[in-house]
Fold each of these.
Amino acid sequence: MSQIISNFSILLQAPIFNLSLLIDGLMIGAVYALSAYGLALVWGVMNVKNLAQGDFVMMGGYTAWFMSLYGIHPLFGVPVAFVLMWGFGWVVYVTIIRRVIDQDLFTSLLATFGLAIVIAQVLNILFTSDTQTADAGFDSFLLFGGLVTIPQVKLIAFVLAAMLAAAVILFMKNSRMGQAIRATAQDERAARVMGIDTDKVYAFTFSLNAAICGAAGALISMIWVIQPFFGITYSIRAFVVVTAAGFGNLPGVIAAGLGMGVIEQFGGFILGAEFQQAIVVGLLLLVLIIKQMQYARLRQVVE
Amino acid sequence: MNSLGLKIPFYGLILAFGLFAPLMFPAYTNQMAVLWLMIILSLTWDLQGGQMGYNSLGNIFFFGFGMYVSAVVQIGLVYDVGVYTRASGGGIFEFTPVQYYTGLALGMAAAGVLSSISAVILGRIVFGLRGPYFAIGTLGVAIAAGELTGAWGWVGGGQGITMPQVPGDPDSAKYFLYLLNFSLAVVLFIFLSWLYSTRFGQAINAIRDDEEKAEGMGIRTTRYKSICWAVSAFFLGISGAVFGNMIGFIEPLEVAFQTINFGIFMVVMVLLGGKGTLWGPIVGAVVFHVIKELTWTYLLGWQWVALGAMIVIIVVYFQDGIMGWVKRKKPEWFGIRVEEKEFAGQPEAAE
């Protein structure tokens, strides 16, 4: 307890630490926003809640890390993870998701939970349960006489995440496929009547989601650590962000992702690093309780 | 199958097997105890997942909660819990038989009662959540409980607690704990088969089929949901207390709040056997347990991958479960009459 208070007073006495935590949080939050955006896409278009989301992220991370072992710079891992995970997402769609898409939501939740276990365990067997980081070998910027350090790799990751998000948004707005995806999200039957091959749209959406997650994972492997069993935490993070923002609300998803990163950084600093997971889960419960209170109010208004 | 003449020998056979099998095959006592535990887990999950339609992924919370409550009661009756956990058991603290058995009895009772109370309180928070939100929310509760217990030094934190040993020689101690599991499963089964035949069973089925309409018909849904979850939590809490004593060492993430272990097994066993039936969870638990033991023995290292793949296959390709499949093939066994369409007039008309 005294540890928590002293940590808190550090923040009050040295405001510069706040800035450093804020910047760190925003940079990590950008990657959260990316994987949450993938979940929002799948959730909104296909009504599938993918609990293997975080494990897709880890797969992307291990792709970049594995390449760095052979002397390839992990930045090249980002496009490679994107392409590889696209293919993996397509395979998952054909074998699993296609068959649970019309079933009730709990089925898809459970099926993807099973998939998450498989992925985590295979990664564990292949790469052991050690935490890994792909060394990108960049320097850090020092601000305010060294009190605030901004690693260049985090800045690059932030910019890449923003670029990828912008590219996906433009694609959804302007391309033919993006239009088809949005049409299917609005009304699947009407879209089919209008001649859209919804099965193809679903396959594309799910693959795109997996690819986005893969790219996000490659970024995470550079700026943070990856470990086979960290996947579920990323799934919960994505879930929290999407639940808080609502899946049709893209600016909301980005804001909530960034906010999540910031809250986690501050919470981790004040409470201690061992509470990282508990903070994520606590946020989940908080968001769900708030959502429920909103529902309760809605019911009262209807009555 | 439904006649009384067949039922009595059938149940008698199961009872006899349950009582005497561990005496005949003492090497497998622990596996069989876990089998009965699996049956308890799947029956309690089915009570509110299959019969009431509230699919929880976090029922393991009550299991772990009961385990910790009973540990604290058992130890706290005799020693100071903080001192005991700091010494990590270590063989310093002895329990006389009287102390152990009163502690166990009180611990089991406290585990059951406090788990029920926690279910009612939690229900206030999460029952407004419908469908997948409920599943994720309960999963969150279970994970959070594991993490927080791990950070709580008084109950041993991540180090865990070494449980007091059952007095007497190890073989009879094993049999004693086995009997606790077995009798709990039998009591639970009898209780549930009575419960499903009452108005309560129909009410929770109505909630599953359409909650809004059930509410419209005057069923107090929140009350029914709370009671249902509390019953489930009561038995889960006691089984957690028994399992804690059986395994001898409890720890928050791997033993008590084992979200991806037992927590997901109970759901899969119910789905495998058939949701919303009385026998489905039992059949599912037996089949699953046998498969699990086989994969653990023959696929060492890959057992988790095999298990995850099995979950996916069961969920994706085998939704109805074993009982659902039998029901489709042999509807008359379940008292469902299938009207054969009569084409008697047709052949003559053709002539």
Amino acid sequence: MTRLTILLAVVLSILLLVPLFLEKYVLGIFIMIFFYAYLGQSWNILTGYTGHISLGHALYVGVGAYTSTYLAQNYGLSPWIGMLVGGVFAVIIALFLGYLGFRFGLRGVYFVILTIAFAEITRLIVSHVEALGSFSGIFLDFNPSFWNFQFRGNVPYYYIALGFMVFSIIVVRILEGSRAGRFMVAIREDEEAAQALGVNAFKYNMIAIALSAFMTSLAGTFYANYIFYLHPDTLFGMALSIELILRPIIGGLGTILGPVLGSFILTPLSEISRAYFTKGGFEGLHLILYGIIAVLVVLFMPKGIIYYVKRWLNPVLRLDNRTYVYSEKGSEAEAES
Amino acid sequence: MDSTLALQLLIQGILLGGLYGLIALGLSLIFGVMGVINFAHGQMMVIGMYISYWIFALLGVEPYLSLVIVSAAIFVLGYVIQSSVVNRILDYPEAMQVLPLVAIGIILENTALLLWGPDHRSPHTAFSLDTIWLGEAMIDVSRLIAFSMAIIITFAIFIFLRKSNMGKCIRAAADNRMAATLVGINVSRINNFSFGLGAATTGAAGALLLPLMPLSPNLGHDFTLTAFIVVILGGMGNLVGALVGGLILGVAESMSTLFLPSTLKQVVSFGILIVIMLFRPQGLLGGKK
């Protein structure tokens, strides 16, 4: 047990007990923290590890939300199963997008624009499909039961969202220690050099985008059954894609805890300032603040806040070099395999 | 199919395409020199439109005249953004280059929202209701003026880049930054100037667009995307390509309304984008890098 593990265990047990003491509004903020941490973590798998920037990840959230809701409303399928169906759809779309992009080694800006294009096309098409509610969106009926993924009060959602977040941390932790994860980092650092060393860049890019899309789409189902209203602009729009990437970048791209930390910092700030400024008639001011923070963090803390937190906690946690260079344990695993 | 309608749409497409070309020209110039994509491009244009709107509303000056002031203001905005933010991120990995510009876009869009509210505004400028009949097709005078001025500005910029000393420095910096530094060009000043110039062209386009469509703070996003598509169509960093791409996209979007509801016209442009990326990622006229 390292001290970091102990710290994380303590934090987790506090988070497990928190709902006993908090009122509904605060609980709602925590749910959004977990939700965005999960989304950021899912995005991090693609962009943080392989370096391919997606600015269209809202697409997968939307696919997840619409698929499970459509199946639940028309065929009575439980969202728990619909969630997985949505995941499969998201993977299919992601693989198609990945095939287009990675086949030609489209990097950087071209790939970014390809991802935006996919999200926007889907948004426009969904806006015109009558069965999916077209411009007016879909309202979900409230039938609380576990099978329906709908609950009274915020507490069940709190634990589900927390579970999602922990799940994503575990997935990324496993990925980072694995051979595939290491290949992805190699691709991020220099795709051509990685290929020259025999890494099948196309294959690992595809794995990363598929995994990332699958996980992102699961959050869509959660969103649908928590908010009870789906609208193409909020679910496929660029605003969500941007929301989703801010936290991992500010927290620390390509790290396990960066997206989580980013969400713990940014989400409460966003929720509270939005409520506060909108009440005061300053609509949009919270987003200005948001943008300024994003610019300042990138300019002055390009490695993400996690880097400074680690350095600051180092004397207590005795992380040594372990977290700067990806864990030594990983390299042993490499030697064994 | 109604041939008069088709002709009408073709003309409208060409006229709007000239403006698309002008917007994309700025984006292409910025990419050509700095290698960064200005994700705040459309939002800058919207700020230009608001400046133009207020000059018109308060002083009664037509957008075609206030264009000079608008361009100057947006030039300063671009210059400041480049010198304060973009110059510092030129050597960052791409993911880190994308975010600050996206964030600047958010800041600009919401500043417009905060200052001027979410309402749509459409000023009644001098020619906004005038039309000319060309055979059976009707042409809006304001569109025709906007198109002509867009073309004039585009060519003025070409000449500026070819002939003037500053223009030559910009092209040198775009070709090879290191070599330009070696022959004594102050590259970071050139960067500032190029970003300012790129921004100014989109500001000018904003002033020209003002009479053509209702103004609202969230207009920018769509124009940023349109400009991307045009630039990729014509070739990244290729300035003639921006004009050609703009005309093609304008016509394609306009003609698509023959078959599709007008709210779906962007699907056509994104479809073109994907096809181009598949078969000719360097753009129709070939790009830089």
